[in-house]
User: Fold this.
Amino acid sequence: MSYQEFLEERDKIDCLIQQGYYIKNVRENLSGAFVEFELKLPDSSGKKDATQTLHIKNADARKYFSSLLIRQMKQTQ
Assistant:
């Protein structure tokens, strides 16, 4: 696990969030977490996939998306 790996995974997560995706589902196992993102609003042009899945291996990156997930849940309440 390296800091560079964390930065790369954090950037991928942030990129999807900035594109309008939200965290829909998380599956964790011994090899990390599979985080499923879904577009908040469907892309009418069809250029973007409605769902994206990231395999998050770094522990700090898992903490990072967990904090985003908690914030997301608070916003929807």
About this structure: The two ends are 35 Å apart (CA to CA). Residues 59-76 form the longest helix (18 residues). DSSP finds two helices and three strands in the chain.
